[in-house]
Automatic annotation (TrEMBL):
Its EC number is 2.7.1.49, 2.7.4.7. One of its GO terms (molecular function) is hydroxymethylpyrimidine kinase activity. This is Bifunctional hydroxymethylpyrimidine kinase/phosphomethylpyrimidine kinase. GO terms for biological process: thiamine biosynthetic process. Pathway: Cofactor biosynthesis; thiamine diphosphate biosynthesis; 4-amino-2-methyl-5-diphosphomethylpyrimidine from 5-amino-1-(5-phospho-D-ribosyl)imidazole: step 3/3. Residues 15-258 form the Pyridoxamine kinase/Phosphomethylpyrimidine kinase domain. It catalyses: 4-amino-5-hydroxymethyl-2-methylpyrimidine + ATP = 4-amino-2-methyl-5-(phosphooxymethyl)pyrimidine + ADP + H(+); 4-amino-2-methyl-5-(phosphooxymethyl)pyrimidine + ATP = 4-amino-2-methyl-5-(diphosphooxymethyl)pyrimidine + ADP. Pfam families: Phos_pyr_kin. Gene3D superfamilies: 3.40.1190.20. Keywords: ATP-binding, Kinase, Nucleotide-binding, Thiamine biosynthesis, Transferase. It is an enzyme of class 2 (transferase).
Length: 266
């Protein structure tokens, strides 16, 4: 019997170490039984310790990949990850503006947990023009500081930052708390213009957190493709990343990746 699966697209970079980027996104889509498609933006030489080199693809090559997917398949939801530079961000923004009925999760990837800068300095202004297309925008603590122009040290700061960033035009914003080293680690703040609330799961005591941000945004995308509302998709994604962190993988000498297929890891 022919099965028609939901389809999701990730527009993101490659992580040679397999923990973040397009590799994490496609594993997350697969876990949710969503067919994963991809448009590669750049190639990072990366492992659990950091990023040693980045090579960008030409904007035309990226748009060709997106177009190949959209002209042939019905895509219910997409996410953007590492977009790297201004020409890539502008080309992707122009393409996404023309889409109808596709939920867009924008992960404004700028800095990795290992401290690697993942976007050119002059690309941040361009990224702000992509934000109004977001069904859900998922900045981490440091990205939220850049986008809101305020320092974030407390839960109250996370809330005011989420409200300020919502003003940039996203339908909903999640300020993620994984970058804290206190009880806020693992608490996220959701704001959609009406509801301001915490997304709380248990805090997992592990250093192997590589790829959590990519995994969360990909899981939101998969759940949107499955037909859930943005808030329900965010809650389910938060549960998923927490389980994957619970079974994170001790690989490499730095921060290992999360266990995307945790039910198999017993
Ligand atoms: N130690 C942890 N325990 C529970 N949840 C965590 C932990 N670290 C990160 N998370 C969750 O992982 C997701 C990604 O957040 P974060 O790590 O801040 O993003 P990024 O990888 O983009 O820096 C968020 O839902 C966050 O709450
Ligand atoms: C290719 C690539 N894309 C995105 C990231 C950032 O990943 P993230 O999930 O935010 O996790 P950390 O890198 O902070 O662990 C990346 N590193 N590489």
């Amino acid at each position: 019997m022919a099965y028609i699966p939901p389809v999701a697209l990730t527009i993101a970079g490659s992580d040679s170490g397999g923990g973040a980027g397009i590799q994490a996104d496609l594993r997350t889509f697969s876990f949710h039984a969503v067919h994963g498609t991809s448009a590669l933006t750049c190639i990072t030489a990366q492992n659990t310790q950091g990023v040693s080199r980045v090579d960008a693809l030409a904007p035309e090559a990226i748009i060709a990949q997106i177009e190949a997917v959209f002209t042939d398949m019905g895509v219910q939801a997409l996410k953007t990850g590492m977009l790297l530079n201004q020409p890539i961000i502008e080309a992707v923004t122009d393409y996404l503006k023309g889409l109808v009925d596709v939920d867009c999760v924008i992960d404004p990837v700028m800095v990795s947990r290992t401290g690697a800068q993942l976007i050119d300095d002059n690309a941040i202004a361009a990224l702000k023009k992509l934000i109004p297309l977001a069904t859900v925008l998922t900045p981490n603590r440091y990205e939220a500081e850049i986008l809101s122009g305020q320092s974030i040290k407390t839960l109250e700061h996370m809330k005011t930052a989420a409200q300020a960033i919502h003003g940039l035009g996203a339908k909903a914003v999640i300020v993620k708390g994984g970058g804290f080293d206190n009880e806020l680690r693992g608490i996220d703040v959701w704001y959609d213009g009406t509801t301001l609330t915490k997304l709380t799961t248990s805090c997992i005591d592990t250093a192997d957190t590589h790829g959590t941000g990519c995994t969360l945004s990909a899981a939101i995308t998969a759940n949107l493709a499955l037909g859930h509302t943005p808030f329900e998709a965010a809650k389910r994604a938060k549960e998923y990343v927490t389980q994957a962190l619970n079974y994170s993988l001790r690989i490499g000498t730095g921060q290992g990746p999360v266990g995307h297929f945790y039910p198999l890891l017993t």
